[in-house]
């Protein structure tokens, strides 16, 4: 009985909408806006490729705050849901949700009183993204804009055939000043322009006969058909809808948005417009009917019309069912879309307890390689087969969908962790399903992760993001069936990395990074002959940070390139000042200062010219800069490393191999590497002289290095016993806490001026 009631109610609702459309000759038009050039006409799924920096940004910013226009229907409007919460709705919000979903970030919408308050929020940095009619935002270097999403024309609507003349009043929405000036050029001087921030009020005035002329956007144009015999004149003025993004987010996020916008095709866009237009018109129609319910003539007309359009209603129901299938069914994977998954999960979680349910994410390893090697069509076939497989693995009380690309997501009750891992292991055996689609020896593997839902009322996308954050840590694990669990420690690490990422550029500008120097001592005469330059960060919020707290992050997000240049500049500046210091003339010999160059830089084809250009800006005299490369780089690309070393030496730099002995083929690379210096891995010294084997290995390495005319440096020297042994077996240079800890530049300068360091 309840089912029948709902169906009848739906029929009447749709019939009422259809009646008004027929009476007023205002059919649904999904093309009241037109896609911009950024929107693709290709209906096939398109691949998005993010750079390493963009991926790092997405990982560090799982949630972004967004504001919009609370009164610009149907593009954007602030509504109150059944729980009393204010939330945005409309075309732009739906588009932005789709973009965020494809990127993998969670939008957090902030309600505002009006668009001016939204603009203030984005200017102050309270929000990172702004929707709305962004042409109205005052110019600012802090706000950048995405490419246009769609364009819409501006029209004059007149109650009669007459055009405005001097003294007439034209009511218009609050367009930008540029567009207002363009509009005014169309009309004679003396025309009065009445501006309203709310376009709905402009329409209401016209419909109710309170004004004879209005200027509105193309979308609102169809609603002017509520007035018969009105004249519509195009003004040859268009605006592009864009999203505004505040710095420092804009630098990375605008290119990300533009990439994703290119994957949204015209069909997706017009489907969104169709759905939102239908919602808006139904609400507009019902409100209009409610206001006129006392009008008996209208009731008679509607009654007759409802009968007339009953069959049309049935057609509309079929159309809506088709649209609903598009929205709720993933044609490629053969299962629910994320929209349906999200709605169903939200309904279940309404009365759930913390950690009663979980999100399980299963992601194909190296799926991009499959697409690149065998084609997107083959990739889609694999997704179809896996969709069938995972749908078959879903239990009756569970949900499953393809979140995006190759990421399949389950929603289920929380079992024992080991039971879950065993189940995922079994689900990962898919050879029988895809054996005909991939080469015989291709082993399709998965990475999987789980988030136990602590906050049932949180956003579903955010829950999946947390699971995927854990998954990223397990991508390189040997046991590909292992399920990685999201923990509070991961959140803490993610927050830490995000805060450092957002402050790193300012830190360079504010010179928060400081170069410390750890002296190097020559064994033959105990003289200081140089130092290693080491980076430190005096972070105003986090305090004094050692490299281990930020260098791994910078290597992942690419900022290490700036840090390495920063260190080189400081080293060259120091050597320049030492060269001009009168004490350097009596010191007796030039000094060498080394610094560590990240492997990230080796893939920069302009590496040597860039470093040479920096060094050429300083007069370092006979002193030398030594570039330290870790031994592990050899195993990345041995041939490339040899070419880089030769290039750096030709440019006047010395080159050393750091952490020598940590690799598996250390002795073998001695004959190939054209390095000037090798620095013995400090782990060798951890058990010297107690460990006779390690002493023998160190002795052998030093003897071979001498025969190859390579200088040896022992770092991590912490005791007199270690120092005496290294001296005895012929090591050239020592570096470590036994002699001196890393020190500030002014303190190292004093060491040089005083002629050396005294040891106990």
TrEMBL record:
GGDEF domain mapped to chain residues: 355-488
Classification via Pfam families: EAL (PF00563), GGDEF (PF00990)
GO MF annotation: an example: cyclic-guanylate-specific phosphodiesterase activity
Database matches in Gene3D superfamilies: 3.30.70.270, EAL domain, Periplasmic binding protein-like II
SUPFAM superfamilies associated with the record: EAL domain-like, Nucleotide cyclase, Periplasmic binding protein-like II
Alphabetized InterPro entries for the sequence: Cyclic-di-GMP_PDE-like (IPR050706), EAL_dom (IPR001633), EAL_sf (IPR035919), GGDEF_dom (IPR000160), Nucleotide_cyclase (IPR029787), Rev_trsase/Diguanyl_cyclase (IPR043128)
UniProt superkingdom: Bacteria
EAL domain residues: 497-756
Record keywords: Membrane, Signal, Transmembrane, Transmembrane helix
Classification via NCBIfam families: GGDEF
PANTHER family named in the record: CYCLIC DI-GMP PHOSPHODIESTERASE PDEF, OXYGEN SENSOR PROTEIN DOSP
Protein name (record): EAL domain-containing protein
Organism name: Treponema peruense
Lineage, uppermost ranks: Bacteria, Pseudomonadati, Spirochaetota, Spirochaetia, Spirochaetales
């Amino acid at each position: 009985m309840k089912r029948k009631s709902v169906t009848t109610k739906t029929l009447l609702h749709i019939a009422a909408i259809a009646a008004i459309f027929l009476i007023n000759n205002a059919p649904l038009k999904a093309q009241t806006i037109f896609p911009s050039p950024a929107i693709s006409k290709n209906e096939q799924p398109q691949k998005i490729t993010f750079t390493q920096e963009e991926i790092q940004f997405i990982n560090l910013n799982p949630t972004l705050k967004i504001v919009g226009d609370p009164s610009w229907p149907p593009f954007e409007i602030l509504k109150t849901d059944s729980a009393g919460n204010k939330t945005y709705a409309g075309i732009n919000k739906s588009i932005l949700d789709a973009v965020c979903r494809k990127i993998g970030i969670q939008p957090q919408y902030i309600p505002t009183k009006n668009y001016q308050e939204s603009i203030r929020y984005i200017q102050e940095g309270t929000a990172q993204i702004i929707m709305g009619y962004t042409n109205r935002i005052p110019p600012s270097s802090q706000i950048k804009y995405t490419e246009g999403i769609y364009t819409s024309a501006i029209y004059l609507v007149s109650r009669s055939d007459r055009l405005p003349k001097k003294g007439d009043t034209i009511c218009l929405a609050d367009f930008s000043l540029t567009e207002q000036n363009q509009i005014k050029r169309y009309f004679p001087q003396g025309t009065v322009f009445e501006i309203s921030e709310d376009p709905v009020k402009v329409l209401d005035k016209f419909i109710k006969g309170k004004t004879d002329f209005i200027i509105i956007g193309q979308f609102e144009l169809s609603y002017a058909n509520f007035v018969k015999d009105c004249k519509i004149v195009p003004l040859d003025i268009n605006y592009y809808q864009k999203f505004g993004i505040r710095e420092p987010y804009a630098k990375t996020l605008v290119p990300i948005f533009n990439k994703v916008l290119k994957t949204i095709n015209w069909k997706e866009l017009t489907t969104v417009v169709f759905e939102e237009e239908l919602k808006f018109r139904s609400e507009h129609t019902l409100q209009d009917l409610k206001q006129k319910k006392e009008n008996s003539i209208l009731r008679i007309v509607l009654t007759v019309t409802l009968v007339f359009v009953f069959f049309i209603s049935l057609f509309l129901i079929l159309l809506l069912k088709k649209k609903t299938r598009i929205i709720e069914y993933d044609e490629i994977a053969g299962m629910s879309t994320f929209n349906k998954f999200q709605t169903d999960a939200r309904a279940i979680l309404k009365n759930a307890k913390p950690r009663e349910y979980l999100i399980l994410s299963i992601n194909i390893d190296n799926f991009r390689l499959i697409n690149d090697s065998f084609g997107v069509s083959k990739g889609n076939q694999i997704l179809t087969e896996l969709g069938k497989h995972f749908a078959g693995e879903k239990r009756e009380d569970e949900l499953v969908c393809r979140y995006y690309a190759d990421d399949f997501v389950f929603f289920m009750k929380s079992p024992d962790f080991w039971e879950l891992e065993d189940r995922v292991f079994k689900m990962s055996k898919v050879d029988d399903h895809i054996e005909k689609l991939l080469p015989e020896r291709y082993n399709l593997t998965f990475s999987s992760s789980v988030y136990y839902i602590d906050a049932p009322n949180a956003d579903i996308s955010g829950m999946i993001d947390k699971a995927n954050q854990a998954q990223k840590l397990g991508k390189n694990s040997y046991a590909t069936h292992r399920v990685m669990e999201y923990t509070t420690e991961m959140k803490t690490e993610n927050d830490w990395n995000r805060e450092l990422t957002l402050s790193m550029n300012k830190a360079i500008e504010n010179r928060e990074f400081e170069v410390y120097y750890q002296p190097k001592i020559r064994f033959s005469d105990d003289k200081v002959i140089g130092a290693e330059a080491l980076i430190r960060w005096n972070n105003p919020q986090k305090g004094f940070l050692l490299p281990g707290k930020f260098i791994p992050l910078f290597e992942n997000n690419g900022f290490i390139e700036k840090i390495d240049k920063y260190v080189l500049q400081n080293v060259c500046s120091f050597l320049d000042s030492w060269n001009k210091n009168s004490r350097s003339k009596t010191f007796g010999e030039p000094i060498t200062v080394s610094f560590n160059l990240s492997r990230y830089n080796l893939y920069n084809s302009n590496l040597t010219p860039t470093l040479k250009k920096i060094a050429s800006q300083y007069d370092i005299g006979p002193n030398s800069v030594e570039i330290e490369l870790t031994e592990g780089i050899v195993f990345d690309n041995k041939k490339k490393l040899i070419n880089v070393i030769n290039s750096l030496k030709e440019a006047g730099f010395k080159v050393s191999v750091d952490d020598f002995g940590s690799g598996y083929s250390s002795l073998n690379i001695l004959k190939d590497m054209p390095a000037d210096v090798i620095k013995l891995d400090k782990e060798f010294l951890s058990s010297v002289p107690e460990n006779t084997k390690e002493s023998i290995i160190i002795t052998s390495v030093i003897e071979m290095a001498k025969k190859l005319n390579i200088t040896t440096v022992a770092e991590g020297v912490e005791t007199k016993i270690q120092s005496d042994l290294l001296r005895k077996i012929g090591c050239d240079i020592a570096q470590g806490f036994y002699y001196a800890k890393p020190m500030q530049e002014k303190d190292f300068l004093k060491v040089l001026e005083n002629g050396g360091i005294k040891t106990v």
